[in-house]
Fold this protein.
Amino acid sequence: MMRTATAEEVGLIIDWAADEGWNPGLDDARAFHAADPVGFFVAEEDGEIVAAISVVNHSDSFAFLGLYLCRPDWRGKGVAFALWKHALAHAGERTVGLDGVAEQQANYARSGFALTGATSRFEGAARPAPALRGATPEDLPALTALDETANGITRPRFLGAWLADCDTRRTLVLDGPEGPAGFATARLCREGCKIGPVVAPDGETALALADAAAAALGAEAFILDVPSAQGGFREALKARGFVATFETARMYRGTPPEAADTLYAVATLELG
């Protein structure tokens, strides 16, 4: 049986992701579920969940696929692919994006996904950062607009939850002459601290934002998932001693969004 996951089950799915080494955030379940409460799906056999997936509808025109997981003893039996097709129907005619492991590209291509780039994970030490202020609820419209320009999509429900401070998450804002000009969100994960999204006018500012966001959570090191379009930023990270540890394929089914050059790190590989 295939059905929509409950909010509690979204937490279980994220635990599965942790078991697979994906290193989710400590408070991801709440923000993920808020993005699209009916965008998480499970397959059940004999009353037990054996596979899961998310297809989160961020807007009327864009969705993102992630958390595609299957219990090892149920792999190769067609259950996961049936759930894949069931979940994709939730997106309707929307463009759907995903960040998938490279060895699965051919499988995704058979479902209409085309490769557009890659996302590389960089890990390294934080440095002292300039003092930047924390985001406030009043900043949300401006930060949503910056995120929309950077990603080429609108996702207000996700950002409303993702940018809300809690014990394990902080968002720092860079102010410009006309209001917020950039921001970065840090979140504590099962291992270490991830920073994303990072939206900034240039690479130097992006690094300063990341350092400041890490410092807000007391992290001495951090992880960034950097789009392949930011080649210069990747080189700057390597020059600073960051190491690339993992890469995913960014693929879309449908017309890819028109992103700007201000996105230096994605929010999460699961929801974009």
In short: The chain has two domains: 2-112, 121-265. The chain has eight helices and 13 strands.
